[in-house]
């Protein structure tokens, strides 16, 4: 099967998971975009785990790595949504929520990739 089909199938799954997980996390009608922060953090952790397992342990084939990393996780994480929601907070003059969202997203996703790396290398 061509590599692009693996990536496309993963993208289909990741997009649906993003919708479900983000909506589940965001329940409650709060202004802060917790759903986006949640999927970005979860996706960053899983990406770190998968890529470091692949790199150091050789666990995943190229097809599996592309399916998971580019397909599933590429459509599961939401950088464009993060940027849009951050800009909307800024436009609504919610400076503290804007700053909290930007800082929390950067810090938590970097920590999540690092923790995924640790788990992947220790596995």
Describe, in short, the structure shown.
With 123 residues, this protein is an all-alpha fold. The protein is built from 5 helices and no strands. 85% of the residues lie in helices and 0% in strands.
Name some characteristics of this structure.
123 residues, mainly alpha, 5 helices, 85% helix, globular
SSE run: HHHHH
Q: Radius of gyration from the CA trace?
A: 16 Å
- Gap from first CA to last CA: 29 Å
By DSSP, the count of extended strands is 0
SSE blueprint and pairings:
Blueprint: H1 3-26, H2 34-57, H3 62-76, H4 79-91, H5 95-122
Question: Can you give a write-up of this model?
Answer:
By secondary structure, the protein is mainly α. It has one domain. It has helices at 3-26, 34-57, 62-76, 79-91, 95-122. Helix 1 packs antiparallel against helix 2 (34-57) and helix 1 packs parallel to helix 3 (62-76). The longest helix is centred in the C-terminal third of the chain and has 28 residues, at 95-122.
């Amino acid at each position: 099967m061509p590599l692009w089909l693996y990536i496309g199938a993963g993208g289909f799954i990741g997009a649906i998971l993003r919708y479900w997980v983000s909506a589940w996390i965001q329940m409650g009608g709060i202004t802060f975009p917790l759903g986006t922060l949640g999927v970005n953090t979860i996706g960053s952790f899983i990406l770190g785990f998968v890529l470091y397992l692949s790199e150091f342990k050789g666990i995943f084939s190229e097809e599996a790595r592309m399916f998971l990393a580019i397909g599933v996780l590429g459509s599961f994480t939401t950088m464009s949504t993060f940027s849009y929601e951050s800009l909307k907070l800024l436009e609504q003059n919610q400076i503290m929520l804007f700053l909290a969202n930007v800082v929390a997203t950067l810090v938590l996703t970097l920590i999540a990739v690092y923790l995924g790396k640790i788990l992947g290398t220790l596995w």
